[in-house]
Amino acid sequence: xxxxxxxxxxxxxxxxxxxxxxxxxxxxxxxxxxxxxxxxxxxxxxxxxxxxxxxxxxxxxxxxxxxxxxxxxxxxxxxxxxxxxxxxxxxxxxxxxxxxxxxxxxxxxxxxxxxxxxxxxxxxxxxxxxxxxxxxxxxxxxxxxxxxxxxxx
Length: 153
Known about the structure:
Elements: H1 11-27, H2 36-59, H3 62-88, H4 94-138
């Protein structure tokens, strides 16, 4: 993939890892540490975001990567819901809730832009392939296509 040689270089992955660390720190203290169900669920959702980014990247295709980015974005929505619940149960103070929610929203928007970029590149590649194949059928001798490239049989 031309944008990064490994998932560790992706800013969205770095941000998601930082968020997961923050979630782990906050859920280890106070009321969170006593309520195991929400504690466990919010931690799993936080870990799922960078994990799905990494897994999708390692799959090696833009299509698979986009699919796993969508899953990561879904986990971000799940995490945001859990933050709202934790705040309503008074497990989070206003400052922590506001900071964590802003971080999740930022990561979600990064994922959305990334997914859109991959989809646009995928569609562009698809249309170029269709044009080249169309020109190959019309120009079996290898004459120049309308894109200015030689098409070989």
